[in-house]
Amino acid sequence: MKYYTVIILVLIHLTISSQTLKGKISDSLTHEALSYVNISIKDKRIGVYSDENGGYKFNLSKTTVKDTLIISYIGYKKQKLAVSKFQENKEYQLNLELTSKTEPLKEILIHSNPKNFSKNSTQLSTGNRNQTFPLSQPYGSEVAIFIENPKNKYGKLTELHLKFKTIKDDKFLTYQTYYRIAFYNVDNLGFPGDLIHFENIIIKPETETKNLIVDLEEKGIPFSKIGMFIGIETIKPDFVKVESAMYLSAPSLIYTHTKSSKTYFRFRSNQWHKQRKTSVFKKKLFAVPFIKLKAVFEKE
């Protein structure tokens, strides 16, 4: 009986003494809690989100002394910390304050006389609405889809329309998901570049949600002559407790097919990678998120 008691005590001790970071993330000026901040390891698929109250807990047991911790949030300056500072098997308390970025001036066009824009909006989409299917993405993944500007003149976005469907499969656990929407310029290599809108836009669809419209009318998001990227990040709600590495996120974003690769992927704040593989459903086509947009353009 004593033998088993010793084993239990040792296991409890090891669990309590695990290498863990714990704390709260807030705004450096207002001290308000920041929810769903990305805390991740550079170039690795390891990371967590802060909860609705800014709290976080990060298990560092799978990291090395050479790793770098990255704390990132839309509209705030990124922070980097060396994991080598946290090598003892204990729980570290680390509260973080993020500094807000000064948003660069948008296109002068956006802040000029609103009469410069046509009152009639133009509808855009990323693919064929008759060839759609749901595709589940893991928490922490972000997909960016290139939206070409068909008019080759300046405009601004007024509406974003997303479609969802919950995949039913008894072989996998299903967890609710949130999504973060971001807007990026196109860099010199054709990849998603700098953010063009600093607001942290998080949408929280129910598992049975099929359509969701995001009103962008008052946000002044510029649409450049060459186009832009729209990023959609899959976020784990803080009430979700993942019990398996194989799961489905719900509701899943609806995808469609295109002839050319227009999407890029990354995990949390790591580097973007261009989609190379074709769709499992259409071997000669590429799977892309099915997005519908409305935009207004400058008058002739």
Structure, explained:
There is one protein chain. The protein is built from 2 helices and 25 strands. The chain is mostly beta strands. It has 2 domains: 2-98, Immunoglobulin-like; 108-297, Jelly Rolls (Sandwich). The radius of gyration is 22 Å and the shape is globular. It starts with a helix and ends with a strand.
Q: Calculate the mean pLDDT score and round it.
A: 88
Q: Helix/strand-derived class?
A: mainly beta
The CATH architecture of the largest domain would be Sandwich
Q: What's the tally of helices?
A: 2
Outline the low-pLDDT stretches: 1-17, 105-112
Q: Could you name the CATH topology of the largest domain?
A: Jelly Rolls
**Most strands sheet:** 8 strands, antiparallel
Please report which band the strand proportion falls in: under 5%, 5-15%, 15-25%, 25-35%, 35-45% or over 45%. 35-45%
Rg over CA atoms, rounded to whole Å, is: 22 Å
Question: How many domains is the backbone divided into?
Answer: 2
Give the SSE order as H and E letters: HEEEEEEEEHEEEEEEEEEEEEEEEEE
Looking at the structure, what is the overall shape? globular
Taking the alpha carbons of the first and last residues, their distance comes to: 87 Å
Please tally the β strands and state the result: 25
Protein name: Carboxypeptidase-like regulatory domain-containing protein
InterPro entries: CarboxyPept-like_regulatory
